[in-house]
Amino acid sequence: MSVVDKTVRGQTDALTFELDLRHSPKKVWRALTDPVLLAEWLLPTVNHKLENGAAFTLQAPPKPGWDGTVACKFMEIEPLKKLSYTWRVGDIDTVVTFTLTPTDAGTLLSLVQSGFKADQKQNFGGARYGWNLMGGRLVELLTNLPTLD
Asked: How far apart, in Å, are the Cα atoms of 38 and each of 30, 118, 122, 138?
């Protein structure tokens, strides 16, 4: 179970990752949608309400030049199948989409962050680094999370 970067070489508009997980879609969905679990692998959430159109915030520790806020809004919610939300940081306005596909061994999780502009190559690289790091944390969380199925 590892994070595999499937981004097409030379691509600067969207990042694509796959995680072949030995966990049920129900367990993976829980890790993607439960605010307590999100805080363990992604970021703490504020006003997290799992409804289409609902706005929420991901809050990272502030850093020089960034207050740590990621403004989000749920765009598509298909329980156990697909979760999509906006991801806005400053002038970066992208969409993050998780797609869950059941497999014989568990779940294939696809993660796509799309909408980067041509002049946002540094942000694209930072997001690539971040998703690799956070994807690893997700794998670790799922491994240690009891199954409630």
From this structure: 9, 30, 25, 9
Q: Tens digit of pLDDT for each residue in 41-83? A: 999 999 999 999 999 999 999 988 889 999 999 999 999 999 9
Q: What is the pLDDT of residue 84?
A: 98
Query: Is the confidence at residue 148, as pLDDT, over 70?
Result: no
* Cβ partners under 8 Å of residue 131, min gap 6: 3, 15, 17, 111, 113
What is the token pair recorded at 63? 């850093």
pLDDT at 90: 87
| Contacts for 112 with CB less than 8 Å, ≥ 6 apart | 14, 15, 16, 17, 96, 97, 99
Neighbours of 31 (CB within 10 A): 21
| Cβ atoms of 50 and 74 closer than 8 Å | yes
**What is the torsion angle, in degrees rounded to the nearest 10, for the CA atoms of residue 136, residue 142, residue 145 and residue 149?**
170
Q: β-strands 92-102, 45-46: how paired?
A: unpaired
11/82 Cα distance (integer angstroms): 23
